[in-house]
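Kindly review this record before class:
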Amino acid sequence: MEKFEVTILGCGSAKPTTRHFPSSQVVNVRDKLFLIDCGEGCQMQICRNHLSYNKINCIFISHLHGDHVLGLVGLISTMGLNDRITDLHIYAPKDFDKPFKSMLEFFCVQLDFKVVFHPIDTTKTDIIFEDRSVEVSTIPLLHRVPCCGFLFREKPTSPHIRREMIDFYNIPYSQINNIKAGMDWVTEEGKVVPYTRLTRPADPPRKYAYCSDTQYIPYLYKQIEGVDLLYHEATYGDDKESMATIYNHSTARQAGRVAKEANAKKLVIGHFSARYLDETVLLNEAKEEFENTFLADEGLTFTV
């Protein structure tokens, strides 16, 4: 199965702590790295997790609160110091365009690569990125400022070759890609061997949903139905549900409810309030709604 992983770089909320970094994570799809959000300390976490700066070609920013974006300019500056030459694409709410360009002009002069800004409308579900491996679309969320999550859909892969059948029919390796593409094989005797006999079905495409800061949305499950992995903010526990309502955040129980309603396979909760010195209480409350729940933590990698 092709690589599809999520590495947590930061899972804290706005108030700094010694236990967690602000929001940031790397999605690895077939060895292509995508960065989601970029709080302070992001580049330090990239180093700690032995990730390559220059493999990150796209950065997705969910909203314009400091704990999700204040590490971005420093990261771009460091990429310049690392002799980057490949274009860097930034996908962020449209209001970020002017201040972002001003910061680049002030702090990131003489870069040897282009920084391409792609404004996104956080109120719509749109495909904002696509290549041969993955498609990324926006998930409108409800927060105090325009905010969206991101849905990563893996592109279908080719069928698996049955090696024993290839050997049995003495099929040359030069024909394997044709067979994966659906071509039957004809033996020297003229017998047609269907490609379905020479292959096994491809792995089903996987989906990962990143739901950043948001209040509980009863209809959110419709946009992320059947995801293999869901990351959903869980800033507060039941004891602070009133604060979640005031600040447009979610509780851990509400995150679990979204995962259950969406028929997700696995839930990871994060964006923990600094009030909780032990997030076990949040984990337990989420698990009461959705058993297959895990706590985010810096350095953890989850397979989609």
